[in-house]
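Incident log, structure service

09:12 report received: a user says their structure output differs between two submissions of the same chain.
09:20 pulled the input from the user's history:
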Amino acid sequence: RRYALQAEELKQLQAGIDERMKALETKRAEYEQWLKRREVFLARAEESVVKIYAGMKPDAAAERLAMVNAELAAAILMKLDARKAGVILNEMDQKAAATLTGIMASAARRVDPS
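09:34 re-ran on a clean worker, output below:
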């Protein structure tokens, strides 16, 4: 009888675990769907930001890029036409341009530097 009670308790525990696993799987699927929507949104936003900077005058673009996060500025410059990015870097402060160039060079490496 004792073993029968333990077996029943184990069945109940297994049913609880199965229920929780289903709930986790549902949450995981929801999260993956949200992540895909977020990536699409970010790609669209990124494209429009690059287009905005591509249409700006180099001195104005340099001024604005100097104010944003250095990694973001480097990413924007990397997506611009090389000639346009070069003119913008030329208009920037030397230290800011050097920092952005270093970030862009590190990002362009094929091998992980660490």
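09:41 both user submissions now match this output. Likely a transient worker issue. Closing.
09:42 reviewer note: Residues 48 and 54 are 10 Å apart (CA to CA). The mean pLDDT is 88.
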